[in-house]
Amino acid sequence: MKEFLKKYLWILAALFCTMLWGLASPTIKLGYQLFPVDTSDAFNIILFAGIRFVGAGIIALLLTKVFTKESPKFDKSMIGPIAILAIFQTAGQYTCFYLGLAVVDAAVGSVLTATSVFFTVILVTIVFRTETLTARKIIATILGLLGSIVLNIDHNLTLQFRFYGEGLILLSSLMNAFANFFMSRFGKKHNLMAITGYQFFVGGLVMVVIAIIKKGSIGIPNINGMMVMLVLMLIASLAYGIWSLLLKIKDTSHVVIFKSFTPVFGAFFSWVLLSEDIFNIRLLISLALITLGTLLINYIPKNSNKNKKDYKPI
Fold it and tell me: Are 233 and 28 in contact (CB under 8 A)?
């Protein structure tokens, strides 16, 4: 049992992260109701998200000692990584996402967000060449993307492209792909849990400032609303904190493929928390495609000696 956990614990951790991200979607909807947040204005949503990430940053820093046994001590060498991730992973990514989501249908946004897995594989194999591009990685990425499309197939997925809609969400996905790559590289020299905490705090502050400048506002929450916000902060700090540690020890493409499970978990928790009807053949097909893709990209033959990360120089 110990040997099994040692070998496969990272897979359970990756699934736990995507489960938390799936839980975040319906929980955010509850937060919008309890604060309340007028979602017709994207900058109200950005303000809500900014406050969430500021709190998540503080929690992530508090959890650093627990997960890494190291103090989240700040030093000057962390300024660059913090600034880069605050832009790519928090402020830039989520500002583009929420502005784009104000224009496009939520189902279309879900499918476009899934392209971050595809972008990440392209970045690490073709652009930066830290991993080798293989047929299995290409097929697995396509299967994951197809799984997200199938999950939303009955919605009005119109074939159109608007920069301030679909374009911004694709840009958000590209930023997320860069963030995954940067985290895997920064992990060589820095405590990624601490970096995650600092960049959440900085990125969240930037989002709050942008929202306030653009007249964003939210209501004063009751105790239930405050509890939901606390849960959202915990979800972000735990998910991204653990995710950053996984990117430090495993190949980036092997980890990011698990993000394809996020919309499936999102559908499940929407049923649990919001009583949304999710039980249909599309969910089963989607889950099968995503699972197949994940198994395909992580399968290592017994006679293979590739059991650890093998970076090529950029």
Answer: no
Q: What total of structural domains would you count in the chain?
A: 1
Alpha-carbon distances, residue 160 vs 103, 121, 167, 189, 296 (angstroms): 12, 25, 10, 43, 32
- Flag whether 3 is in a domain: no
pLDDT of residue 16: 95
CB of 116 closer than 8 Å to CB of 109: no
Residue 271's identity, in one-letter code, is W
pTM: 0.82
User: Mind listing the pLDDT tens digit for each residue in 228-282?
Assistant: 999 999 999 999 999 988 988 888 888 988 888 887 888 788 778 877 666 677 7
Alpha helices (H) along 35-91:
42-68, 79-85
DSSP 8-state class, residue 152: T
Let me know if residue 8 belongs to a domain.
Answer: no
Assess if residue 305 is contained within a domain.
no
Tens-digit pLDDT profile for residues 291-300: 888 888 776 6
Does 2 reside within a domain? no
What tokens does 233 get? 């902060």
Average pLDDT over residues 77-91: 94
**Interatomic CA distance for residues 197 and 57, integer angstroms:** 4
Domain of residue 134 covers 17-298
The number of beta carbons lying within 10 Å of the beta carbon of residue 224 is 13
Instruction: Give whichever of 31-35, 104-108, 110-114, 213-217 has the largest mean pLDDT.
Output: 213-217
Among 151, 152, 172, 170, smallest CA distance to 160 is for 170
Please give the Cα distance from 41 to 48 (Å, whole number).
11
Cα separation, 161 vs 108, whole angstroms: 11
Q: Which amino acid is at 69?
A: K
> Is 2 a residue whose pLDDT tops 80?
no
| C-alpha span between 104 and 166 (Å, rounded) | 7
HSE, side-chain direction, 13 A CA sphere, residue 288: 6
Closest CA to 94 of 162, 171, 183: 171
Instruction: Calculate the average pLDDT of the chain.
Output: 84
